[in-house]
C-alpha cells in the first residue's frame, strides 16, 4: 500500500485544482456521451428535449436512453472506484477490488436463480433488487467466515471472498447449463453494461450509493491511520474493529448497488485508486473524492468509446473495461513484485 513517490499534486491548491478539473472533465464527457453515438444530436436538441418536449423519437432517445445511461455510468463508476480504494486498505492488498468480497459472484448467482424461477417474467427492476440481495448475502457470508473472536483478519477476508466467489460461480455455471433458456438473459447481465438502464433503476439504488459514499468519506481519516498497520492503529487509539465493520458496510453498499444497477463491471475498483494515489497522494480525505470523480470519468469515457468500436453495434462497457484492466493488472502485479 505504500508509495515512495511523491504525488503529482502535492499542495492543497493543486489538489483542489485537480478535483475541479476532474469535475469539468466529467461534465464534458457526460455531454459528449449524451450527444454522440449511432444517432448524433446537437446541444440544442438536449435543451429542447427537456424545455419543449414534443414526444418525438429524438426527444425520447435523449430523455429515456442517453441521459439515464450517462447518470448510471457516472454513479456506478464513482461507487466502484471508492469501494476499491476502501477495499485495498481493508485487506492491505494493493490488488484488491470489490469482487474480493464475492459481490459480483453473489449478484450473478441470485440473478440466475431469479431467471430460473421466473424466466421472462423477471423485469429489470426485479433483477436489480435480486442482484442487490445476492451481493449483500454473499458479502455477509464472507464477513462471517473471516471473523475470529470479535474481529477479522485481512488474509482470512481475502481467502473467504475467493472461496465464496468460486463457489457461487460454480453454482451459477451449473444452473445456466441445466436451464439453457436463461443463458442469453444471464450473459447479457453478467457481462456488465449501462445500456438500456432507466432512471428508475438508478433511483432504486441511489440511496444506498449515497449512504456508502457518505460513510466512506466520514471514515477517510480513520483509513489514513489503518494504512499504518493494525498495531500502529491500535497504539494511536483507533477502534480497529469498528472501522473495519463500517468500512465493510460501505463497500457492500457501494459495490452491491453498483453491480445490481449495471452488472459486474470489473477493474474500475482496481485501476482508479492506483492512478489517484499517483496523482493526489495517500491521504484518503483527498483520495476518496478523487476516486469518485475519476471512476465516474473512466466509466463514462469507456462507455462512450465502446459505442464506436463496432458501430453500429455497441460493445458492452464491461468488455471495454476488461480490455483496459487486464494489461493494467499485469503491469501493477509485476511492478509490485519488483518493489
Whole-angstrom Rg: 20 Å
Outline: globular
H and E order: HHHHHEEHHHHHHHHH
**Count of helices?**
14
Largest sheet: 2 strands, antiparallel
Keywords:
single chain; 339 residues; mainly alpha; two-stranded antiparallel sheet
List the helices and strands and how they pair.
Layout: H1 12-35, H2 43-51, H3 57-90, H4 103-118, H5 124-146, E1 147-148, E2 151-152, H6 154-178, H7 183-191, H8 199-218, H9 220-226, H10 230-235, H11 240-262, H12 268-280, H13 284-306, H14 317-338
Helix pairs in contact: 1-3, 1-13, 2-3, 3-8, 3-11, 3-12, 3-13, 4-5, 4-6, 4-7, 5-6, 5-8, 5-11, 8-11, 12-13
Description:
The chain is mainly alpha-helical and 339 residues long. It has 14 helices and 2 strands; from the N terminus they run H-H-H-H-H-E-E-H-H-H-H-H-H-H-H-H. Strands 1-2 form a two-stranded antiparallel ribbon. The model has no long low-confidence stretch (mean pLDDT 87).
Provide a quick synopsis of the model:
The protein is an all-alpha fold and 339 residues long. It has 14 helices and two strands, in the order αααααββααααααααα.
